[in-house]
Design brief:
This protein is of the alpha/beta class.
Length: 961
Amino acid sequence: MRLGRKWKCCFVLKMGERRVHELLSLHLLLNFLLLSFAAESTSMEEDMNALDSLKNLMQNLPQSWEGSDPCNGWEGISCTESRVTSIKLAGIDLNGQLSADIGSLSELRALDLSYNKNLGGPLPREIGNLKKLEELFIVGCGFTGPVPDEIGSLPELAYLSLNSNSFSGRIPASIGNLSKLQWLDLTDNQLVGPIPVSSGATSGLDMLHNTLHFHLGNNNISGAIPPELFSSNMALIHLILDSNKLTGNIPNTLGLAQNLTVVRLENNFLTGSVPQDLTRLHNVTDLIMYNNNLSGPIPNLSGMTSLQYLDMSNNDFDPSEFPSWLQNLPRLKSLIMGSTNLEGKIPAAFFSLADLQTVVLKDNKLNGSLEIGTNHSRQLQLIDLQNNHIEDFNKQYEAFRITIILVGNAACYERGSETSTLCTIQDKPPSELTRNCFPDKCSNPYQISSPNCKCAYPYVGTLSYRAPSYINITALEENLVRTFQSHHLPVDSVSLIKPPCSPFQCFKLTVQIFPSGQDHFNQTMISAMSVLLSSLSTTEAYTFILGLDNYGLESSRKSSNTRIIIGAAVGGSVSLVLFLLAGVYALCQTRRAEKAMEESNPFGNWDLNDRSSPRPQLHGAKRFSFKELNEYTNNFSQANEIGSGGYGKVYRGTLPSGQLVAIKRAQKQSNLGVLQFKAEIELLSRVHHKNLVSLLGFCFERGEQMLVYEFVPNGTLKDSISGKSGIRLDWARRLKVALGTARGLAYLHEHANPPVIHRDIKSTNILLDERLNAKVADFGLSKPMDNCEKDHVTTQVKGTMGYLDPDYYTTQQLTEKSDVYSFGVLMLELITARKPIQRGKHIVKVFRSTIDKTKNLHGLQEILDPALGLGSPLKELENFVDLAMNCVEDSGADRPTMSDVVKEIESMLKSAGLNYMPESSASNSASFEEVNNVTTSSHVCNSNESLDSSSLCNIRKIEPK
C-alpha cells in the first residue's frame, strides 16, 4: 500500500511538471504570435504612412485612394499578404513630388510613375531603401537633379528606366553594383561627364555582365568610350550612345561584345578609323554612326552578315570606290552613306539584294551611268543620289514605282532631262491610311476618325524606336491592338504616323490609340495602357512618350461637362426671368452691338475689289481662305505638323505652285485680339530682309487666325547647337549665324518704318535655311518703337526668362537695347551650347565668374562647346566673347547698338580670313545676296554642271577658307 501511494504521488508530481511545461510553451507561443502580429501591424502601418505622405505631396491621385486599407480597392496598388508590393500610376497626370517616405515601403517590388509630366523634383535618396525593388519606371516625367548614388544599392533591380526627364550630373558608378540589372535606360536627360567604369574598389558599368540594354543617348555625356566597358562575357545586345559629346576613337574592344544586335553612335565627335574588329559582330542588325568626325578608310564589314540598317553618313572617310563588300550583306534593307567621299560607279548587282528598300548616297562623287538592272529588289522604295556626278540614266526608270532623286547630277543638265521626274524633288503629300470604309466627318475638332472610321478622342503619344530595322508599321499596329485587347483594354484600333524628317534621320512615330465602344478612355484605362506600354518598352525596340495635348484623357472633358450640367440646372431655374429681361435688353443694345462688331472685326468690311475699303495696309501679304490652307496642309494633318507652342501649332503646307510654306495656326482659346492680329500682319508685311522670316499671307475667317510664312527647312538654331537636328555648326558657321541674326535686328532697329523691337530673341526663334543662313522669326511680341510710350502694353514685361533684359525688367521701359541684351545671351549660347539658365545658374554670371583674360581663350575651355572645332581663329573667339559681354551689360546705355555689333562681327570674319560681304544700308531688302561659300544661291548650284558637289553647293562639307 505504501508503495502504491508513493507511486501515485510521483505520478501526480510528474503530471504537474508536464502541465507546467505545456503552460510555458503555450505562453511562449502566444508571445511569439503577439510579437509577430505587432511587427506585421507595424509594417502595415509604415506602408500606410508612406502612402499618406505620397497623398500629401501629389495631386490628381485616383479617387479610389480613400480609407485605411490600401490593399482594398486602391487603384494602382497591388498587395501580397497585406503588404504593398506594387505601385503603378502611369499616365494619370500626377502633379507634385515623390515623397522620401517611399523608402518605407520595404516590400515594394515594382514602381511605375511614368508619363506624368508634372511630377518632378529630385528623386529621393531613400529610393535606395527598397531592397526588394525589381522594376523602377519613371519615364517622361519632370524629375531633376542627380540620379542618386543609392540607386546602386538595390540588389534585386532588373529594370531601370529614368529616360525623358531632366536628370543632371554624372551617371552614378554605383549602378555597376546591380548584378541582376537587365535594362538600363537613361536616354533623353541632361547627364554629363564620362561613362563610369570600375577602378579599384569603385564599380562601373563594365560590371553589368547580365545587362542586355545600355540606352544612354541624347545626353551631354563626354570623354572617350572606355575600352574597359566591353568584354567577351557581356550579355549586352543594345548599345545606344547617340547624341552626346563623346570624343576619341571607337575602341577595338567593342568587337568583344558579340551578342550585340544594335550599335548607335551617331551625333557625337568620335574620330579616327572605324576598327576592323567590328566585323566580328555577326549579330548586329543596326549600325549607325552618322555625323561624327570618323576618318581613314571605310571599313570592310562583310562579316556582319545580319546587318539590315547601315548609316555612316557625314564623316570624313578617305575617298574610295563604292564598296564591293556591300553586295555580301544578304539581309541589308537600308544603306545610308551620304557625304562619305564615295567615288566611281554603283554596280547594278548591288540593287539586286533581295531585302533592299532604301539607298541614300547623296553628296558624294559617284559617277558613270545609273544602272538599276531588271533584277532589282522588289522591296526597293528610294534611291537618293543628289549632288553626285551621275552622267546618264535610263528614261524608263521614270515609270518605276521607286522614288529616284538625281537632282544636282550632270545627267539632269542634259537637253531634255531637266523636266524628268528624276531631276526634281517631288513633295508628295503624306499617304492616307488604308481604310475599308468611308471616314466619318467628326463634328468636334479634337476628335479624329480612326482607321476603322469612327470618330473618337485618341490617346496620343510618340514611339521613339531604338532600332530602325525592327519597325514594320503595319505589323506593329496590329501587334499593339492584339496586346491591348489581350489585357482586356477597350482598344478599337491603333494608327502609327511617321512625321516628315529633317535631312538627318528621325526615329519617331506618332501613335494614336482609339477606344472601342465609346469615344474616349477613362483614367483607369489610360493608366493601364501607360503601364502596359512601359513594360512593352523593355521587350520591344521602342519607347513610348505621352503626347502633350492628349485628348484621350477624360478628366478635362469631364470637368467641363460637369460645369455645363451644373450651369444648365442653375440657369434653368431663372430662365423665365432672364428671358423677359433679355428681350428688353436686346432692343436697347442692338445698335451698340453692331458698332462694337465693326470695331472688333476690322476685316468685316473688306471688299477686295474696292480700294477705298478700310483694309490693313499690306505690302506683298496675301489673304488666304480657310479652305485653301486646309487643302494645302491636307486637312491640317498630324503628318504635316512641324512645331507647336503656347500660341498653337505650325503646319507645313504646299502651295499650288509647289512652294513650301509654314502655317502658324493659333489655338482658339489663345487667339490674339483681332486688332492686335491686324497690327501684327501690318507690321510683318512692312519688313523685308534676307535675315527675317518673310510673311507671305494670313487667314482670318471661321474664328481662325493663321499666318503663312516662308518655309525654312533646317529648323531652329537651338536644335542645331544642341545636336538634335544633326546639323554640325563649327566656329565659322556659328560666327556667320551670329552675323545674320545681328543684321536682321539692325534692320528692324534702324531701317524698318517704323523701327521695331523684337522683344523675344532666343535660339528657338532663329531659323536656318537650306544654306544655314540665319532668319529671325516669331514676331508675336514685337512692338513698333514709335508706339512704345503710347501703348501701355509695351510697358509690360514680356519675353523669355534667361534672355530677358534686367534693365527692362526693373524699369519696364522697353528700348532697342533690350534686343541687344537678348542677342548677347544668344552669343554666349552659340559658343557653349548651354541653356541660358542651367542648374539654377545664369549663363551671364557663369561667364563673368569664369573669364580670365590673362589665359588663352579667356580661360573658358571647360564651358565652350567641343563642336566649335576650334583651330586657328582663337583671337576672334576672344573678341566674340568680349562683344557678347558688352551686349549683356546691366545698363542698356552701356550696350552697343546692333549696327555696331554687325561691324564688329564683320571685322572678326575679315580677320579670320573668311569670305563675307559688308552689308550697306542700301542692301537691306529681301533681294540682298551674300557672296560667300555658305550662301551661294540655289540657282547657281542647280544650273552650273561644272560645280563640284562637295564644295560651294554642299553646306555640310563647307570649311572656312
